[in-house]
Write a structure and sequence with these properties.
183 residues, alpha+beta, Alpha-Beta Plaits, nine-stranded antiparallel β-sheet, 2 helices
Length: 183
Amino acid sequence: MPQSPAPFESVTVLAPEAEPIAVVKQTGLTFADLPALMDAVFTHLMPTLAAQGVELVGAPLSYYTRLEPSGIDVQVGFPIAEESTAALSEPLQLADTEYTVELSHLPESRVAAHTYMGGYDGLGGAWQSFLGQVAERGLVPTKHFWEVYVTEPTADGDPALNRTDLFIALDNDEDGEPDDLVA
């Protein structure tokens, strides 16, 4: 999905094609596990992919496929050029970590999008607000959702200026009929 140059100021419905992503997949995590995972992946993934000739085509992201009290299943990585998918035909060892990098895809499905501006500690509230707006529009969300971290945070930066685009796959098409979700 091409990154929007401007923030999504209201809930926007899009219909992207499936998009290849190079990710580290983890299952059964807790919210407390996520910062360490993201720090390790985002620190080491770009050089690992560059060494394999993989072309990145967007900002870092986290793609969630399960969020339940029993655990979180997440894929953390970057969108990549279709031409780079062959470089990930076999999983790669992520340099200086115990993680492996593999090919995955963001789903081909109608999605709702919205932008959150602020520190990462406000993402929970941003998701609650976004999902409320999605429901008000009569859209039916699935359990597949992702965050794109458009702004790279810096130690001396203002967290209020961080831009995170929120996306959730929808389970109904324009006529209210269920979609087939490709994950």
